[in-house]
Amino acid sequence: MQAAPFLVLAVTLLAYAAVSSFGFVYDDGVQIVHNSSVQHWRYVPAFFTTHVWQYVTPYMKSNYYRPIYMIWLLLNFKLFGLHSGAWHLAVVALHLVVTWQVYRLALEILRHEIAALVSAALFGLHPIHVEAVAWVSGATEPLVAMPILASLLSYIAFRRHKRARSYAIALAWFCLALLAKESAMMVPMLLLAYDVLFPLEATERLAQRIRESLVRLSPFPILMAGYLAARFHALQALGHEMTPVSLRTNLLTIPSLLLFYLRLLLLPVRLSGFYDLGYVTSAETVLLPALLCLVVVGLAVAMLWRWRSRPATFALLVVILPLLPVMRLSLLPWREIAHDRYLYVPSIGFALLLGLWFRWSYHGSAARQRWIATGAICVVMALYFVGSMGQSLYWADNLVLYARGVNVAPNNLIARTDLASELLRRGRREDALAQYRDVLQREPQFWLARYNLGYAEYSMNDCERGSRDLQLASYQNPMDAETYFYLGQCRFRLGDRENGIALMRHGIDLDPRMPNLRASLADALVLMGTQSSLRSALELYRAEARGNPAHPTAARRASELEAQLSAR
């Protein structure tokens, strides 16, 4: 049996072997490829005082305070550059570590070697992890799961051996987990549950267990308070409202969302980075999902009451507690309320439940029933393996990813807009424009599609339409630098040069760090031809060359223009 855990890891690795040929997709481009903050060590201190998107959209609020994730991106860049295959394998390696930890935790909770192996295998192979493992930016999930499990395991070791070192290690891992993702705040509740459910002495009373556990765990809330203070400093709030969702709508939507996640855990097919799950605003619509949720909860409570299983109770808490933060829908981006990656940590509890079922089926049963249980688990593992291997392929490149999104979620406007942008990038302009216009026909106020349509028209030199759509986009999002800049470019090309220059300057003022904009404005000023515009262009070329050394012509044009002005 000693080699069995390594066999589980090997099979899991095989399921994700194809990702080594995948590229950067979705948010990887802006978060990694075009984000200088994850390419230089000097930005590390700022990771602890800013949010993830600070260097991409500094004018926008964000709820993503994740310094460990940013450090992970920086380390990967220093080790692998922009070799995407190595980045993908690094995420797979993280997933293998977490799978090993699930095995160790299952041993502690289930007290059964084969059941622990079953839990680890089902966790490692579950297709619900495709988004978190096959997508580089999905590393946020294994990055938080690893220190969460390390903290749990270290605390369990402390409980058993009473070593201060193990307790200190549990605290240190908890700190890292908090800095990886906010869902780690549920760790103290899991530790309290472990203390209550698994006492060292069977004679201990419940009140005594709770009291002693609260004393033992008292440093954890202190560390959490420090994390919340750092988070508040970085975000200027503990959490920003990203979407105006009323409390009523939030409560009405939760039953459908919970059933959706339950379906993904039980039947992980037709997985995608995009789903059609929207906000529920009608009380009539929520009746059936709410009834089904009550049935599921009732069955779970009845089973726990009948079997009085402490491992099952703990496993259910591992499923439920990490999902609580994503039930507050106003903190999530518009219509981005359901993602496979949110089930990465909860699926640990699901794997423990399946391992526990196997233990119950295996012990005290006739040989025939054991064979049935073993065969059923093997079939599930085989289906999981095929499901993970096959569905991970949809993350190979952007065109496949977005086409899959539109296929699974035809009403998801973000998927359609992203597909249009990828079609435009590949030169399929008419198809891209058709997609943008279809989105705007469905939702005229969707800013991203409006801006992308305007930019596409500008890039095709259709500045009449581009100017109109970019103007509408500027009303919908008055803080976007590129909207104003390209609106200025359109106006300039249409002959309204003064207004065009002013709009381009306004765009640069909104985000002075945006690359290439200064050089483009300088090109326009050179065409103006006046002495003052040429001097302004010279300063802009110099600024572009300083801030963006990779620009192909800024330094040369600055030298040429300087010589031209000196000759006058």
Main attributes?
Serine Threonine Protein Phosphatase 5, Tetratricopeptide repeat, mainly alpha, 3 domains, 568 residues
SSE inventory with pairings:
Blueprint lengths: L3 H12 L12 H6 L10 H4 L19 H14 L3 H27 L2 H13 L4 H5 L5 H22 L2 H17 L6 H11 L8 H11 L2 H17 L11 H20 L16 H25 L2 H11 L25 H17 L4 H26 L5 H11 L4 H13 L3 H14 L4 H13 L3 H14 L4 H13 L3 H14 L6 H12 L2 H17 L6 H14 L1
Describe it for me?
With 568 residues, this protein is mostly helical. The protein folds into three domains: 4-395, no CATH class; 412-509, Serine Threonine Protein Phosphatase 5, Tetratricopeptide repeat; 515-568, no CATH class. Helices cover 69% and strands 0% of the residues. The chain has helices spanning 4-15, 28-33, 44-47, 67-80, 84-110, 113-125, 130-134, 140-161, 164-180, 187-197, 206-216, 219-235, 247-266, 283-307, 310-320, 346-362, 367-392, 398-408, 413-425, 429-442, 447-459, 463-476, 481-493, 497-510, 517-528, 531-547, 554-567. α1 packs parallel to α17, α6 (113-125) runs antiparallel to α16 (346-362) and α21 (447-459) packs parallel to α23. It starts with a helix and ends with a helix.
